[in-house]
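Subject: for your reference before the review

Hello V.,

The reviewers asked for a structural picture of the protein, and I figured it would be easier to keep everything in one thread rather than splitting it across files. Below is the amino acid sequence we used in the manuscript, unchanged from the supplementary table.
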Amino acid sequence: MSDEEARVTRRVVLAAGAAVLAAADGVAAQEKGRVTGGGPARSYLPVETLGGATAPFRLVDGVKEFHLTAEEVSHEMAPGMVVKCWGYDGRTPGPTIEAVEGDRVRVLVTNKLGEHTTIHWHGLLVPNGMDGIGGVTQPQIAPGETWAYEFTLQQHGTFMYHPHADEVLQMALGMMGMFVVHPKRPREPKVDRDYAILLHEWAIHPGTFRPDPAVMVDFNTFTFNSKVFPAIPPLVARTGQRVRVRLGNLSMDDHPIHLHGAAFKVTGTDGGPVPASAQFPETTVLVPVGATRDIEWVAGAPGDWPFHCHKSHHAMGAMGHEVPNAVGADQQKAEKRLRKLIPGYMAMGERGMAEHQDHAGHMGGPKNTLPMMVGKGPFGNIEMGGMFTLVKVRDGITSFEDPGWYQHPAGTLAYRVP
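And here is what came back from the structure prediction:
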């Protein structure tokens, strides 16, 4: 073993031992870190990873130390659908790492998978030897090993992390997460609500429990933070609050994310903040593959406002790609004959696809497979799924739990004309 290898080994062993202590005081250290940022006193608004988690850390001689464990994860995408994924710290996406520009961070990565891995800090400016490219900047992390990545944060913004070893399989199975770096000096205007959402898509064949990493085009499950509507929580804000949503995309498709009820501006990318002079109003932002986009707006109109991908198949669940088009076809004769072979068979799609959700509650499908349309609102079937949730804006609220359905003031509802 060379002297350099020995130094790295000693550092990893010492750091791994220190990480064990984080279980006892990680939460307290995290709260302390949110105030101090690991350096001179400064504060920031913590990011809420919608339906996810934030990585705890502890301060070790002024260094913020995080610990990520790569492992197989049993993940519930929605009630009734549990998928065997790979992720970090028992979840996919992995917990969001939060720190402050100028912080020195150390991330300990333990590999509990059956194959090697690495981790890459997507968009972050780090020394070449910390870039996490297996075979190029480091040997792969073998099963059972713990490796340390240590660097000083030189910029602020929204970034991501993911493997650069067998990444086609590992990312398809859910190994990814967000890395948020807050500015050393708070930016203006300040935001009141700060959300993080990682976009992903999966090929989970009906009746199966593992995503298929060999699929390149025909994905059938589309998620915000690895959740499918209606399991995706709402984004809640008080009227007049400034809201930021940090969107990251490590899937195989671009996603046009659309907001109802307000116009926003793109204020940042994984390349850095967008100058105010270059910002303009939008209601849809295209989030390219391998990119992040920060959007901000003032929640001005109370209500339950949809927030979703505008590729229509991406706002559905369990999309089938080889289903014949039955719109306008008279299926009565075929239905009678099929019922003799399949008792209870019901022809659908003749007048459109909306009737699918009506039957989803009492017609069984393959195990571990969600219906294409799910979720009910105060006026009936919502007929959406996948990359879909709601921005719930309310006057005067102090709690940001789900406030329930919006109660429309008199004279503000569309109505049937006699």
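For the response letter, the relevant points are probably these. Residues 187 and 273 are 10 Å apart (CA to CA). The chain has a mean pLDDT of 85.

Happy to draft the paragraph if you're swamped.

O.
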